[in-house]
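Researcher: Go.
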Amino acid sequence: IIEFVQEYLPIESFQLLLRAIKGWAKSRRVYGNSWGFLGGLSFAILAAWSCHYYDENDITLDKLLLNFFQVISQHHWNQPIALTEAEKEYSIQLPRDLFPIITSIEPCQNTARNVTRSTSEILRREFQRGAELTQEIIDGNLDWSILFEPIDLHNKSDVLLELKIISNNNQELEQKCGNIEADIIGLVIQLEQNDIFVRPWTGINRMKNTAIITLSLNLPPDCDLNSIETLALEFSSQFGCSFEVKIE
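Model: Structure:
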């Protein structure tokens, strides 16, 4: 990645760009590979790839951000994001390669294989939002703070699905949280197979002897809430700890 970037701009400028992109992704809650979004490596590859299209003489962070969002929002995702010739030969396999962002070392793999139908749409919306806002900011119409404005997920769904893990053993609770976070994408995919649009809330909310995982759901007209509860309970049962499932 560094070798690729250095052909286009100083590595210090790239580091500033990547730090800003990660800050944006975390504030908009699209950071986290296990949740169906993009992890640090994916964002690093995207940031590096965007540098290839930077054609300004002066290198400033605001223009680098504008370039990043414009390039990524306009990309056709039937083509892989690739830094080397070997990566460009990567064969896309649907439906698991909706966001093909390919590793820069062999064997070439997609760093974003957890991206799902729902999360790919969310990512596209956020990249488009970023492109529109950065242009307005560059034009002097808006302040930079609006780009990094934290997203409020409470009003983004028909219902909320909450999985509450309960344990008086802190070590066990941490272990179960790690196991569930690693596998939560499986529940997201199961819900999507029932034509449900899923918006994972990245991260686990911990309180004393409980931890809560939240998914926002937009439902098809004929969706049965009991079937959602059944899927959630079946998913939870594999982890061998006390669970509560709440739909509201």
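Model: Strands lie at 159-166, 197-200, 205-207, 210-218, 242-247.
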